[in-house]
Amino acid sequence: MLDTTITLVGNLVEDPEHRTTTNGASVCSFRLASTPRRFDRSENRWVDGATSHRLYHSSGSSPYDVP
Predict the structure, then answer these.
(1) Most exposed: 13, 16, 28, 40, by fewest CB within 10 Å?
(2) Which UniProt keywords apply (predicted)?
(3) How far is Cα 29 from Cα 66, in angstroms, rounded to an integer?
(4) Residue 1 within a domain
């Protein structure tokens, strides 16, 4: 089976929640906040964009790879 690796960069908003569904599948849910940055050459400084908060769910064998 081919697995896809995804790297998420940001700050955890709260502790990840590990749980098991009624059929025995492992699931991890977590919220991540990230803020994009770009360099403004006209002002010679870094500028932050709008912070976004996302909810992610991971299932299968990968939930235990979440911090």
Answers:
(1) 40
(2) DNA-binding
(3) 9
(4) no
The reported pTM is 0.65
For residue 6 the two structure tokens come to: 């995804």
Residues found in the chain: 67
Query: How many structural domains does the chain have?
Result: 1
Tens of pLDDT, residue by residue over 51-65, are: 999 998 887 665 555
Tokens of 51: 């912070």
Integer Cα distance of 66 and 58 in angstroms: 8
Tell whether 3 is covered by a domain. no
CA 7 to centroid of chain Cα atoms: 8
Has residue 60 been placed in a domain?
Answer: yes
Q: Please give the residue range of the domain that contains residue 56.
A: 11-65
Q: What is the pLDDT of residues 34-46, one digit of tens each?
A: 999 999 999 999 9
